[in-house]
Design goal:
Among the domains are: 7-73, Multidrug-efflux Transporter Regulator, Chain: A, Domain 2 (Orthogonal Bundle); 84-116 and 136-216, no CATH class. The protein contains 7 helices and 5 strands; from the N terminus they run βααββαααββαα. The protein has helices spanning 10-17, 21-30, 50-62, 67-73, 84-110, 141-163, 168-264, and strands at 7-8, 37-40, 43-47, 121-126, 129-134. Helix 5 runs parallel beside helix 7 and helix 6 runs antiparallel to helix 7. The N and C termini lie far apart (128 Å).
């Protein structure tokens, strides 16, 4: 028998139950073992009966029921609580994944685009003396983002490697510091994204202006060509008419000269 049960996403459950999508996801994360669902890639897919389960859990939470008691009511034991070290490490890993995803997004969408105002310095040698000069080729967007993510990942991995032996408080402090650095890196990447987007919009506007100018020039050129053709035609017609006048005048002069010569003869010799 074919499975005709609907598959739902968090947004669908939120719409059906009236619970916010954020709360649906929060309940799903906290009570994952109680909610019938599975993961498809990075998306969590819920079965239809998950709507009732999530609604009931939400009602129990609203009434002040403790999480352990909610698990008990569903006939399951509450999972062991994570230590501060585990929770902080998990949060740090999520931030690391988010940073990596954003880096991949920039690499895919913008390629080697360069944020405006970025400059680098290189050393050039002239007559044996090294000189510092600004180049026209700053580092690509890919290398900038990759370096930032690589730095963050190294710090995360170093902290995680120390997590098993270090006290919770010490790890929490170090992870908090690393989270702050990752937040700064994330803000920097977001700023670069906005700068690239603004640069692209400016480029598009400039291209449109150039196209308009070219179109206007083409129209003016066409008009100028029409006038040139008109004047050339007029000159040709004028030249033809003048040639005809000259030809007729020459013929008239020749006829007049012949008549004069004829008149010079005695009348008995005239034709």
């Amino acid at each position: 028998m074919a499975d005709t049960e609907k598959k739902l996403k968090a947004a669908d459950i939120a719409e059906i139950s009236g619970i916010s999508e954020r709360e649906v996801k929060s309940i799903s994360d906290e009570f994952a073992s109680l909610i019938p669902s599975h993961t498809l890639g990075r998306i969590k897919i819920y079965e239809e009966k998950a709507v009732d389960v999530i609604s009931k859990i939400n009602s129990l939470k609203q009434s002040g029921t403790a999480s352990e008691d909610i698990f008990t009511q569903f006939g399951k034991a509450a999972p062991a609580k994570k230590s501060t070290k585990e929770r902080m490490t998990e949060t740090l890993r999520k931030n690391q994944a988010s940073l990596g995803a954003r880096a991949a997004h920039i690499t895919k969408d913008y390629g080697n685009s360069i944020p405006p105002g970025t400059k680098t310095k290189t050393s050039t040698k002239s007559s044996g003396t090294a000189k510092s000069a600004e180049t026209a080729e700053p580092p690509s967007m890919i290398s900038m983002v990759t370096d930032a993510v690589s730095t963050a990942e190294k710090r995360v991995n170093r902290l995680i490697s120390l997590a098993d032996s270090a006290p919770d408080s010490e790890v929490a402090d170090k992870i908090g510091s690393a989270e702050l650095r990752i937040s700064k890196l994330t803000l920097r990447i977001e700023k670069i994204e906005s700068e690239i987007a603004a640069m692209q919009k400016t480029s598009e506007r400039n291209m449109n202006d150039i196209k308009d100018m070219l179109s206007s020039l083409e129209k003016r050129t066409d008009i100028a060509n029409d006038w040139v053709n008109y004047f050339e035609k007029s000159l040709d017609e004028y030249k033809a008419s003048q040639d005809a006048v000259c030809s007729n005048l020459k013929k008239s002069v020749a006829d007049a000269a012949a008549d004069i010569e004829e008149l010079k003869k005695p009348f008995w010799k005239r034709k």
